[in-house]
C-alpha cells in the first residue's frame, strides 16, 4: 500500500540530507542557461564541487527558444566541439556554421552537467552575495523564487563557496546586486561600474564575450550575456557559440586562479 506520509518523508529526508552536503562548495553558479550549464560541467569535470541555483522551474534560459522561437541554434565550428562532446546532433550548414535543435542541446547540456557531478536546484534565486575576507565574494544568499515573486519578507539562507558565477544573462543580476548594495565597489570594467549591453553587432558580441569572460570582482566570475551587460559589449542574437566558449573559459579561469593561489 502506498503511504502518503512515507512519500513526504522520502522527499524531505533525502532533500535535506543532500542540501546539507552542499552548504560549502567550490563554485556556486546563478543561472542554468547555456553559459551556466557549460561552466558547471567543465568545472565539475576538473573535480570541483559545483551547484547551480536556477530561478525558474526549467533549464535553458534563453536557449530553448532558439531564434524567435524557431527551436534551432547556430554555433561556430569551435563551439560545435563542445556540443559534440555531449552527443548533440549537429548539422553542418556551411563551412562556418553548424545548427542544432535547441531543445536537444539544452537537455543534453543539463544531463551532461549532472553526469559530471553538478547539483542543480530549480526555483531558487540567488538574491545577494556574501562579501567578506578582504572584500571577496565568499558565498551566495539564496531564497525560493516563489518568495521573491510573491514579495514576501522571508529571510534567506546561505551557501558558501570559493567562487560565485554570474550566469544570469542579460540582467547580470549578481553584478547589479553587488553594485547596488556596495556602491564603493570597483569592478574590473574600464569605468569600475556596470557599463550596460550594447545594440546588436554579432561579430563584435561573439568576439568580446570571450575576451571579457573574467573575474569582475574578487570571487565573482561573469559568463554568458552577463559579460556583455557588464562590459558594454554588443548583443549577438541567436548564435550561441560565444555562450558555450564563455562558459568553458569561466571554468578554466577559476581552475587557473585556484592553482596559482
Ligand atoms: C538564479 C537566475 C537569477 C538569479 C536570472 O539568459 P540565459 O540563457 O543566460 P546565458 O548568458 O547563459 O545565455 C544567454 C542567451 O540565452 C541569450 O540570451 C542570448 C544569446 N542573447 C543574445 C541576444 O542578442 O539577445 O540564462 C540565465 C538564467 C535564466 O534561466 C534565469 O532564470 C536565471 O539565469 N537567473 N537564477 N538566481 N538571481 N537571475
Describe, in plain words, how this protein is organized in 3D:
- The chain starts with a helix and ends with a helix.
- Strands 1, 2, 6, 7, 8, 9, 10 and 11 form an eight-stranded mixed beta sheet that branches. The protein has a three-stranded antiparallel beta sheet with strand order 3-5-4.
- The longest helix has 20 residues, at 241-260.
- The protein has a single domain (24-260), classed as 3-Layer(bba) Sandwich (FAD/NAD(P)-binding domain).
- It is an alpha/beta fold.
- The chain is globular and about 55 Å long.
- It contains nine helices and eleven strands.
- Helix 2 (34-45) packs parallel to helix 4, helix 2 packs parallel to helix 9 (241-260) and helix 7 runs parallel beside helix 9.
- The model has no long low-confidence stretch (mean pLDDT 96).
- It is 40% helix and 24% strand.
- Bound molecules: ligand 48H.
Which tags fit this structure?
eight-stranded mixed sheet, 261 residues, alpha/beta, FAD/NAD(P)-binding domain, 11 strands, three-stranded antiparallel sheet, 40% helix, binds ligand 48H, single chain, globular
